[in-house]
Structure formats: C-alpha cells, structure tokens
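Hey, resending since the last one bounced:
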Amino acid sequence: MRLITIKLENFQRFQKLDVRLDGRDAAIIGQNETGKSTIANAITWVLTDKPYTDEPGYTPKSIKGKDFAHNLDHSATLIYELENGRQIELKKTLRETWTKKRGSTTAEMTGHTTSYWIDDLPLAMKDYNSRIAELFGDSETIQLLTRPDFFSSAMPWAKRRHLLLDICGDISDEDVVRSDKDLQPLLELIADRTIDEISQIARQRAKKCNDELQLLPARIDEALRSIPADLPDEEDLEERIRKAVSALKSMRQELAGLSTTAGASDELMGQLKAARRAYSDAREQHESAERKAKLDHKARRRELEDVIDEIKARLRREKWSFEQTTTERDNIAARRQKLVEEIEALVASRYTGETVCPVCKQDLPADQVEASIAAWNEQRAKKIERLTEEGKQRYSAAAIRELQAKIDEIAEAINALKRELTEAEMRLSEHLDERVETVPFELTPEETPLRESVERLDRLVEEANADDPVIVEARGTMEEKIRKEEEYLGELQRLQQQKDLAARQKDRVAELEAREKELATEFEAQQKIVRLCETFVQRKAELLTDSINSRFKHLRFRLFVEQINGGLKEDCEVLIPSETGNLVPYKSANTGGRILAGVEIIGVLGEFFDCHLPIVIDNAESVTNPIRTSAQVIRLIARPDTPELIIELDESRESEAA
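The structure tokens again:
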C-alpha cells in the first residue's frame, strides 16, 4: 500500500499544502519549525486520530498570532493506492461549533466537530473507523506499521512479547520436553498440569519433607540418650544371672549343711538339709520358669514386631506403586480427553476463510474458494489423523483399562495388607497385654509349707546348737554372703530390665532412622523435579528466543532476565548491534541504529499482518546506512541550511526489497 497524495488546508502551520508522492519514497527536508512533523502528524491523525509525535492535547487547528485561528475548516486528505491498484481517498475535517445563547447578540464557541469522508462519501465516525480498520488495521496496528519507534519504545514490554509469540508461535510444553532427553521425566507430569503447578507442588512437598527431616535428628538423639550407657552384653548378663542363681543355691545348701558333732543329731541335720534343698530347688525352678517365660515373651514380641515391620514395608511399596500407577492413568486419561476434544472440535469446525474480496466486496471466484476449502479440509484431515494416531499409540482406552486393572489389583493387595497388618497389630497388642507377671517365690503358695518346714527344723537345730559358738558364727557369715549375693542378683535383674528398655528404644531409633531415609529419598525426588522444572524454563527460554530471533536478520530479543536466585523473569528487550558488534538495548543505541531496527521490525510485522503501510521516519538524517524495506518510506530530515520545506522524491528507490 502506497501514499499518493497529501492535501492539507488550514492544518496547523499550513494554510494550504498539496504534496504528490505518487507512491514513491520521499525525503521531506527543512530546518526546525518548517512543518515536517506537521505532515507526519496529519498522516497518523487521519488514520488513527492521534499525532505521530504523541503530543498530548493535539489539535490540527492553525495558530493566528497568539491564539488559534477561528471559523476555519482544518482538514487533511490522504490518497492511497491499495494492493489491487485501486485508489482510495480519506479525509477528515475539524471545525468549531459556535452557539448564540438566548438573549445574547454574539455567538460563543462551544466545542468542535469532526467530519469524515471516504471517496467523497460522508460517513459517521464509527463507519469511518470500521472501514479504516478493514483496510489498514486498528489504531495500534497502524502505528506499529508506520512508526519505527512504536514497537520498541511506546508499546509495553508485555504486549511486545505477546505479539512476538503470536508471530512466531509459542512452543508447547510437550515440545520443550521432547527437545531435551534430560527432561523426559516431566513428560507424564505435564499432561494435566502446567510447569508452574508441577514446580509449586514439588516445592511444597520438598518443604514438607525438609521440615520433618529437621525434627528427626533431635527425636533420634532423644531416643539414643534414653538408652542406658555401658550395659553388659545380653549373653554375658544372662550368664552372670545364671551364675548368681547357682551361687545362691550352693550357699543355701552350705548353710543348710552347717552342723557340729556336739549339736544336733545327724538325723535332724539330714532332715534340715533335705528341707533346705527342697526349698532351694523349688525357688530355682520358680525363678528359672519366670526367666524362661520372660525370654519367651520377649522373643515372641520381637517376632510379632518383625512381622509388622515386614507388612508395613510391603504396604509402603504397594502404596507408592498405587500412586505412581494412578498418576500415570490420570495423565493418560486427561491427555486422551484433551485429544478427543481437539478432534471433536476439528470435526465440527467449518471453513471460515475469505469468500468475499475485502477490498471490492465482490465474491471471490468459485474455483479459488473451492481450492481454499480443499486445502483447509486437507490440513484439517491431516491434523485429525495425527491426533488420532497419537491417541492410539500413547493414550489409548486399552492402555487406560490396563492401568485401571493394575490399580484395582494393587488396591486389593493394599486392602489385604491392611487387614494383615491389623491382625498382626492385634496379636502384638494381645501379646503385650499378656504380661509375664513376676511373683516373688516367697509369695507363692508352695513356698509356705517348704519355708515353715525349714523354719521348724532351723529352730530345732538352733536349739540343739545354741551352745556351739563356731556354728553360730559360720551360719552368720554364710547368711551375710547369701544376703550380698541376693543383692547382686537383684542388681543384675535391674540391668536386665534396662536392657529390655534399651532394646525398645533401639527399635524406636531404627524406626526413626528408616523414616529419615524415606524422607531424604522423597526430598531428593521432589528437588529433582524442581531442578527439572528450572531446566525446562531455561530450555523453553532458549527455544523461544531462537525461534523469534530467527525471524530477524540483524536484531535480537532478550525474552528472559536471569534473577539473583538463578530463576528467570519474563522480559522483552530489543537488542541492536552497536558499531563494535556488541548487542545493546534499544534505549542505549544511537538514533540511526534505533531507526534501522524499527524498520526491520516493521518488515516482520508487515508480513505477519499481511499489510505494508508507508513508513514515516523522523530524524532520518541520523541514518547513514541504506534503509532496506519493500514498504514506501517517507523520511523527515532536519537540515539547518534549508529554511523552506523541500520534498524530494526518490526516482531510483534507494530502499530495496529485503
């Protein structure tokens, strides 16, 4: 599209101006205040109702003295040649509105009205703007295609980025994952969640694991500190207890055998020895039975605990398998549903391409429309075929059924293990309730007659030996030794109880350490997912940047900024080669570099919008290199030695098609 004629009447500094460009490149030359910007403002005012210079409160009204000139029509007319060779005339006029108030003899200016014409046909503002949008695009598009600085400086970076993604196409998460084998573990996770969601979930899980991991060392240390130090070996302690019991038995037998020829008769002493032996044997049998019962009870408890630990380990494995298989099934089902929806949408879609010429409003030739429809149908069929094949290969209903069957099987195994665990825990609980009651031999029913028999015979022997000081002293010495040995045996039994407590605490430590290991494994797994997500973001940044930069010959774009914490923040900065070859941000480049960058951007945007408008370049004197573009170029050149405005047409088209 080319600009043929510019006509201005009472438009700012021009009372009347008629410029014929005939669609050629032009240089509008003059010193400051000669009207170069006025012409540029007139072009954008007609098309967008805004000035080229972004002047706030802009008005095309002429200045007369120190005030605006009144009662004049301020108009601008542009004649364009469209792509099909047809010419179209656009005209806008601003005029003042004057009103006489009741009782007044003079009129007062009460506002302004703007009139619109296309090819001498007056139109309402809405219809005029609608027609402009059909031919040239909306106001923002027009500024993007006519002003080299608009994209890089006037447009917010987020909109710049969005527009670039529209031009080059965004990259799907699946494409990013498939581009890097290290990212393959994310393939199943992205079926129903975004990378941000996956990363957030992984971070939360990792934090939960880490929080619990921070508490475990203190709990383990507390359990360890409750274990008595310097406890004897289990077998050594049992041996010492056995020896102490045996020593007591011997001492009691020796005590029973003390006699003197001057004292009790051999028959009486024999009876006493037999009574003491019976008492000692009964005590030994009682204490031996209690020790055996305690050892058997302890062994059974450990046996039941081992069974429970083994069931819990199997249960953890089955639960993990259940979660993994369920996630896999849900991901495949979600992706399958998405494919079905996409296929259904494609099947239901209908051709919406052009059947009417957007310029002349005439029906396009039937063969051209049919060819477009056929091409569209072929493309749709290929996409349906590709999606269907993808569903069959990777997301089939059979695969989902197979996974569901596996899930049901695992769930049944989990329920069976839960029942087995409940039964094992009940057996352990019942076993713990069946505590081994330790009853002192002295409190047993069998002890009383045995003791009374010994006491009766002791009295008889004491009476018979009452006058024998040797026997009295020997008996006293032996009784003291027995008392000390009994204290020693009691101390050993207390150590045995501490050993039992220590064993329970060691089991608790082992349980906590197993949990610590389990949490550490889970923490590392979630951290790995977080690292994969970070790698994903970096990889996507690289792919997006490469995709967009490939559209431009000289420019580059910075789409992400690396944060202090290593993350990436979205951005959209135009980078321009400097004279040294280094890339510098748009705002840091010289004026000529910014202009050339803007022209290159307009070229890419023109291809995307399929519209090429005349480009108006202010400060064009800063450009020393040729401006290469297929669009018409109108350069505004400031020249101090040119007091009157000069318009030079480029007969040879200095600018060439890129």
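The chain is about 55% helix and 15% strand.

Sorry for the duplicate.
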